[in-house]
Design goal:
It is built from nine helices and no strands. The protein is an all-alpha fold.
């Protein structure tokens, strides 16, 4: 019987194309980065540690990423994509009333943060102050959060009677408020129940919408 064919890491590769093997190694490195950055922290993690966790040699790390910061960016994109998806799915049907959609989006967002503490550690804390490139990625995600919230809220806003109000700036303020609530909740080790935190976020959103309606 012929021995199984192995790659340089001692893993079977018979039947797998080189591109597939590279994608698999990249996936393992992203998973290792998510775990390491989300538990030990980005600054406490080395390429050697990441390679050991992913089961790949260092040369394969540099096959996919230029350095650990490059991996951090990819991990950040993945965890924030999960956050955006949670908000989108949680907001529910387009024909639902605004209270139902906002509460659903907030519940899904905060539940994800509670269920996987790696997500907020990476998205809220490890990403800060790394480099200008990473700072730009943070701003891009902030813009994406504003975009998805704009899609959610704009159908329920009528700004025709006060055109000086910039809808995007208002929603940016709401996003910032929800982020601060989430960060404080994480730093307090999730002491408040999810429902209470959702109620706090909902109150902020509802207050702004009510104020806009009263300003007509």
């Amino acid at each position: 019987m012929n021995a199984p064919e192995l790659d340089a890491d001692g893993r079977r590769y018979r039947g797998a194309a080189p591109g597939q093997r590279q994608r698999e190694r990249r996936t393992r490195l992203i998973e290792a980065g998510t775990e390491a950055f989300g538990t030990d922290g980005y600054r406490n993690t080395t390429v050697t540690t990441l390679c050991a966790a992913a089961g790949v040699g260092k040369r394969y790390f540099y096959e996919s990423f230029t350095d650990s910061e490059d991996l951090l960016l990819e991990v950040y994109r993945e965890v924030t994509a999960r956050m955006l998806e949670a908000i989108h799915l949680g907001s529910g049907a387009l024909d639902a009333d605004i209270d139902t959609r906002v509460r659903g989006a907030l519940t899904a967002y905060f539940q994800l943060i509670r269920d996987d503490p790696r997500v907020p550690r990476i998205a809220f804390f490890e990403i800060l102050g790394v480099s200008p490139t990473v700072d730009r990625a943070y701003q891009e995600v902030l813009d994406a959060l504003v975009d998805i919230c704009t899609v959610l809220l704009t159908p329920y806003l009528d700004l025709g009677d006060h055109p000086a109000v910039n809808t995007r700036m208002v929603i940016l303020g709401l996003v910032g408020a929800i982020l601060i609530i989430a960060q404080k909740w994480v730093l307090d080790d999730y002491r408040q129940p999810v429902g209470d935190v959702v109620d706090s976020g909902f109150l902020v959103v509802n207050a702004v919408l009510a104020q806009l309606a009263a300003a007509k």
